[in-house]
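Filed under: proteins

Residues; backbone shape codes:
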Amino acid sequence: MKAIKWTGEQITEPGIYSEIPLEQYHGQWICNGPSVSSSNLRRVLEINGGSPAHMFSEWSGNEKATEVADSKAFVLGRAAHHLMLGQPNFARLFAIRPDEFSDYRTKEARKWRDEKIAKGITPLTDDDVTAIKGMATSLGSHPLISQGLLSGDVERSLFWQDPATKIWLKSRPDAIPTDSGDFADLKTTPSVSWPDLVRTISDFAYHQQAALVREGAKAVLGIDMASFSLVFVEKKAPFCARVVMLKDEDIELGRRQNHKALAIIAKCIADNHWPGPGDDHVTHIELSTRYKELAEEAVK
């Protein structure tokens, strides 16, 4: 399906769109109604450490939303995505800090940094560039990556409406495959060891992201997602890379969680009420099983 070049007008029809800046993609004006992305759907659920209150405090649909500052890890990941996925306009979005500014302690260095940020340009340090090059080298030598696992159309955004709630859904896969239904997403991470990845995938609920990509591929592109792989690469030396594939049953769980999240968001919009975790009830809470075992042993 050929992408529709975005003209700057509000999106009123489902489709795959190109040339939408990331800031516009995440904003609410982009669609002619409330819209949510995977991060919103994950953030609204308490099991992911969030709630409606947490989601609303960061959502672009809230005029008083708290602006979340970019962490160093997020900046590095975003820059790495641009270079490693062949996305254009890197020089217009990122700038390497000059050698004469070893940090931002001087007035001149802070002025340079603030001027770049005011123009929508993200400053990078030499260490950032070294890390990006290390990650790129590692990924380039991985057999699955060199065979084209991350190949496809980049900077494409999928928009469609949830039939039940009429809320706009949006998904921006790293690369949309042009010759298969095998999707992959690039993630930077501190460690690619198996226990750490199991914890990372759960902590960030990446199975919900995969489920939204699958739904968007069907609703907008008319294709069935055959698989969803996560390409992890470490942010520090030795920059090891590892590819893992999510199980279908986990992605299906993510689909059900997404639609539970949509129902919650729709109710909150209708009621104009965004509760925090447990706002409306009191429940019993238990000590952890491990703690109780140790305590029982200690008092014998």
Notes: The beta strands are 4-5, 15-18, 35-36, 94-96, 122-124, 156-161, 168-171, 182-189, 227-234, 241-245. Residues 182 and 227 are 5 Å apart (CA to CA). The chain has one domain: 4-299.
